[in-house]
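so i finally got all the pieces together for this one. its four components total, 534 residues if u count the protein bits. some of the lines might not be protein, just check the labels. i wanna see the whole assembly predicted at once instead of chain by chain like last time, that was a mess tbh
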Amino acid sequence: MKPSEGVTAEIVVQHVRSLIERGELRPGDRLPPERELAVQLGVSRPSVRAGLRSLAAIGILQTRHGAGTFITDGPPTLGSEPLSFLAALHGFTRDEMFEARRALEVGIAGLAAERATDEQIATIAEEVTGMFASLDDPQAFLIHDIRFHRAVAAASGNPILASLVEMVSALFYEQRRKTVENGRDLKQAAQAHRAIYHAIRAHDVKRARAAMSEHLSVAQQAQALENGDAAGTQVPAALPSFDAPAHRPRRPARVSVPAPASPTSAR
Amino acid sequence: MKPSEGVTAEIVVQHVRSLIERGELRPGDRLPPERELAVQLGVSRPSVRAGLRSLAAIGILQTRHGAGTFITDGPPTLGSEPLSFLAALHGFTRDEMFEARRALEVGIAGLAAERATDEQIATIAEEVTGMFASLDDPQAFLIHDIRFHRAVAAASGNPILASLVEMVSALFYEQRRKTVENGRDLKQAAQAHRAIYHAIRAHDVKRARAAMSEHLSVAQQAQALENGDAAGTQVPAALPSFDAPAHRPRRPARVSVPAPASPTSAR
DNA sequence: AAAGTCGTATGGTCAGACCATTGCTCAATC
DNA sequence: GATTGAGCAATGGTCTGACCATACGACTTT
C-alpha cells in the first residue's frame, strides 16, 4: 500500500483505472474535463487534478492545455524519468546500465531471430543501410542506431521487453548525442549491426544473441575509453530534454529524435 | 519534451532533482515543508504539491500525513503500477509477461553465478530450505519463492536488473496469492529452485542460466494449465493492494509480504 | 473560397481557509 | 522517578472560488 498519497486523489486514479480496464478508455481517447470529473466522482477539482497528475507522471495520460486530457497514445512505453531519478539517487554506474541493457537486448535478439516477420526484417535492414550511408554524419548515424534497436525490439514481438529496453536505453542516447564517436568506431558499429541483422534474417537464434552481446560489449568498452574513466563513473544524471517527442496526435512536426515507430504493439 | 504538464510544477521537480544530484538529498531524508518550498521557489503551494505528487507517483518520494515528505528509502525500486497500467491499456498477455521475466531472470542467474558472494549464496540457500519446509503451506511457500528470486537478483550485483525484474514479477505474485498451486507442483518447484541454487553456488554460469530458464518455462506452463486457458489470456489487471509494505522508517510492523531485504544496494 | 477574428471550452495557477494526522512536550498520576 | 495522558504545534490533505493561458472551432470578412 502506498504510504499515504491522500485518499480522494486515489479515487480518481482508481476510477480511471476501471475505465481503462472496462475498455471505456483506450489509447488516444480524451477524458472528461476536470470539472466534470469532479462532480461525477464527488470530489473537488484539485483532487481530480492530483489524481490525473499522478497518472500523467507514470506516463498513462497526457494533458494538453486548452484541449483536454488524453490517454497516452502510441506504442507502450514506461518513460525514462523514473529510472533516471533512481540512477541519480542510488548512483548507478554506466557499466551497470550497459549490463542491464545487454541482458535485455540479448534475449530480445534471440526472440527476434525466432519470430521476425519479413516486414520487420526489412525495417531492420533499412536502418542498417541508413547507418552505412551516414558514416560521415554521427548525428544521423545515431538516429539509425536508435531505430535499429527499436526495430529489433519490435521484431521480438514482446512489447514488455521493448518497453523495458527503451527505458534503459533512453539514458544512453541523450548522453551520446553529444559525445559522438569517431569515424572508425562508426564503421565498426555499422558492421556489428549488420551482423545482428544477418543473424535475425537467417532466423539463427544463437548467432543473433552472440552478435548482439558482442556488439554491446564493444560499444561499452568504446564508450568507456571515450570518457576515459575507470568504468566506475556514475551515469551523468541529467537528461535535459530527452523525453520522446510527445507524440502529438496531429502535427507531424519531428526534428531531433526519430518517431517511436510503433515498436511492437499493433493490437 | 513532456506535452504540457505545466511549468511551475516542473520547477519543483527540477529543484528536487538538483538537490538529489548535488547530494543534498539522500534516501530517507526529509524535504522542507510544502509551505516553505513554496516561498523558496516562488510558487504557490498547490504547485509545490503538484510537483511533489509527480515525484511520489514515480516512487521517488513518499509523503506521510502530519510528518513530512521523504525521499524513498530502501532498495532502489521502480514500482509495479506503471507496468500494471500499461498492461491494462495494451492488453499484455500473461505469456508475454512470463517471457519478459524469463529473459531478465536468465541473465540475472548468469550474473549471480559469476559474482555471488558466500553471504548471498547463504541467503539463497536459506530460501530454498524454507521452500522445502513449507511444501504443505502454499502461502508460506510463495513468500520463500518471492524471496528466493529477490536474493538471486541481489546476487547479480546489478540493482537495475533487480529493479526491472521486481517490477515485472510483482504482477504475478499478487495473482498467485490466490490461485495457489497444489502440492505436487510445489515440490517440483522447490526442486527447480534448488537446482538453480546449486548452479549458482558452483559458479556455473551456463547451468544457472539453463536451470532458471527451465524453471520459468515449467512455471509458466503450470500456471497456464491452472487457469485453463489458451495462453492468450490477458493479465488479470487488478493489483488490489500489492504495493510493497510502505517501508515505514520505524515500526517493524510486517505482516503479509516479506521484507524487501535490500536486493542489492547496501549503500 | 480563403483568411483572419472572436468566443468558448479546458487546463494551469493562485490565494486563503480549514481539516486530519503525527509526534512531541509537559503535566498529572501512580 | 517512571508512566501515562492531554494538549499543542507542525505538516500534509482537501476544499472553494477566482482568474489566467491556451487551443480549437465558428463566424465574419474580404
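Chain B has a mean pLDDT of 85.
Residues 94-115 of chain B form the longest helix (22 residues).
anyway lmk what u think
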